[in-house]
Amino acid sequence: MGSWISCLSYYKEREVSMKKETLEFLEAHQSGTPSKWREEAEWRRDNWSWLQHAQMIAAKVLLRMKQEGLTQKALAERMDCTQQYVSKILKGRENLSLDTLSKLENALGINLIYDDHVTSPSMVAEEMLV
Predict the structure, then answer these.
(1) Which domain holds residue 91?
(2) Reported pTM
(3) How many distinct structural domains can be found in the chain?
């Protein structure tokens, strides 16, 4: 029984020692700047409604760029904006204006903001009358 207790005691001491070593290691290697994960998570939660659209648009734009063999720089030239702005759009975290959406559509020859089944506002009006 004594050896069992000493064995248990050894493992308990080893566990405490490992926790202490781990804590010291983490404290020694922590970043000097505080993490922004909470603020970023709250921002995503607060902006979720438009972020999902921005991400879908980014995916469509990336697909079209791949199909046409376009670089970000080439798309930026077509849109008359900077490559850095195109990069922000492609990350899916940019709240796009209608002007930017129109420029994307014209530059890529794709439809981003209208339903494929609706071709004009008059079609919507006709459907509402039915």
Answers:
(1) 47-112
(2) 0.64
(3) 1
